[in-house]
Amino acid sequence: MTVSLGLPTIPRRLAAGETAAASAALPPRPGPDSAPGLLDRFGRTATDLRVSLTDRCNLRCTYCMPADGLPWLPKDQALSADEIVRLVSIGVRDLGVRQVRFTGGEPLLRADLVDIVRRVAALEPRPDISLTTNAIGLAQRARALADAGLDRINVSLDSLHAETFETLTRRPFLDKVLAGVDAAAAAGLTPIKINAVLLPGVNDHEAADLLAWSLDRGHELRFIEQMPLDADRTWHRASFVTADDIRGRLAERFVLSPHAAPRDGAPAERFDAVGLGAESHLVGTVGIIASVSEPFCGDCRRTRLTAEGGVRSCLFGDAETGLRDPLRAGASDAELADLWRGAMWAKPASHGIDRDDFVQPVRTMSAIGG
Ligand code: SAM
Ligand code: SF4
Ligand code: SF4
């Protein structure tokens, strides 16, 4: 199947080659007094910070990690809890960051996660704090995370069948994930968002099952189109499961209609879903994050901090501005904020996956922080 990839809307026209892979010369950046936040040259302002707490993981999802894992970052090169909290506080206090999402790798692998959440929850203004996790070990920590100030949680769950789960993640841990989801619900981290990536011929037939399971429990399901960010480089534009494919699968058992609330820059397009026939009691919403086929780069509000303290303005741009070394060399908050602003000014207009000269980033999703 050949798909047509949508073109993102952006506030000004792209110059030739001006994508994540190749950016044109930068116009001069306004000073911090006229543009105090994380403004880019296309007029977008980043208020949503993704913080990767580690590049390590205890799963090996085929669309993300290679079977043998990756060469992990040495511990002394990863940011400490103090360093993370300092950088997040600069983002929140000085740069207009209002949402902080902890991710990875697998953020639950950090023993100091609860402490980091508690300290970020004490910042002024208090940011919205969320976590994206594979939920392994969540059963033991959900209550402590909620008590520390975690507001919301996204759990990645691609299959409800133990065998398929193991094929996808290369680990036999479905039970642990399901226990983690239940513990998060019991701890009040609701509504829980479930993230699912569908792979053709592997779990795409489970789309409606995943929605029925989520609606039945009051969780909000989000399908994420597979992106070319895997270590094995198996993504192919002719064979990934598109938003259209997903809507088609869901329509077999649900009536979908556009959700009334405005999207407001959110990556997911939401639909109201009502089950058909014997499933008519299943009512709720479902989101589709069509990063590839219906991109939303023109509304992007994200800035990312890698586990070793690099600012990454775009998932698909290899350019990174290291904050860890200046921080360890004694840079002031104002100097670090200015480096961060400079990195975001250079943010590319779009990922450019639709272009013939698209080049997959060097880092994989797990090493960037999804
Ligand atoms: N380990 C945690 C987890 O899986 O939730 C957090 C990090 S993971 C990189 C964050 C999200 O990225 C997950 O929901 C995962 O499904 C998604 N992801 C990873 N690789 C992807 C890819 N190639 N395309 C689309 N989504 C991907
Ligand atoms: Fe680990 Fe998350 Fe990547 Fe799966 S998607 S390998 S759980 S980092
Ligand atoms: Fe933002 Fe993702 Fe588009 Fe980059 S690819 S501009 S991170 S939406």
Instruction: Give, in spatial order, the strands making up the sheet with the most strands.
Output: 9-10-11-8-7-6-5-4-3-12-13-14
User: What is the 3D form?
Assistant: globular
Q: Which structural class best describes the helix and strand composition?
A: alpha/beta
Second-tier CATH architecture: Alpha-Beta Barrel
Mean pLDDT: 92
Distance between the termini: 27 Å
Runs with pLDDT <50, length 5+? 1-17
What's the count of strands? Answer: 14
**How large, in whole angstroms, is the Cα Rg?**
20 Å
Helix content estimate = 25-40%
Q: What is the CATH T-level topology?
A: TIM Barrel
Question: What does this molecule look like?
Answer:
With 370 residues, the chain is α/β, with parallel strands linked by helices. It has one domain: Aldolase class I (TIM Barrel), CATH 3.20.20. It contains ten helices and 14 strands. The strands form two sheets. A twelve-stranded mixed β-sheet has the order 9-10-11-8-7-6-5-4-3-12-13-14. The protein has a two-stranded antiparallel ribbon with strand order 1-2. Helix 2 links the parallel strand 4 and strand 5. The chain is globular and about 60 Å long. Bound molecules: S-adenosylmethionine and iron/sulfur cluster (2 copies). One iron/sulfur cluster binds next to helix 10.
Write the layout of secondary structure elements.
Blueprint: E1 38-39, E2 45-46, E3 48-52, H1 81-94, E4 99-103, H2 113-121, E5 128-133, H3 138-148, E6 152-156, H4 162-169, H5 174-186, E7 193-197, H6 207-217, E8 220-224, H7 243-251, E9 254-258, E10 269-275, E11 283-289, E12 302-305, E13 310-312, E14 321-322, H8 324-328, H9 333-345, H10 365-368
Parallel strand pairs: 3-4, 3-12, 4-5, 5-6, 6-7, 7-8, 8-11
Antiparallel strand pairs: 1-2, 9-10, 10-11, 12-13, 13-14
Helix pairs in contact: 1-2, 1-9, 2-3, 3-5
The structure holds S-adenosylmethionine and iron/sulfur cluster (2 copies).
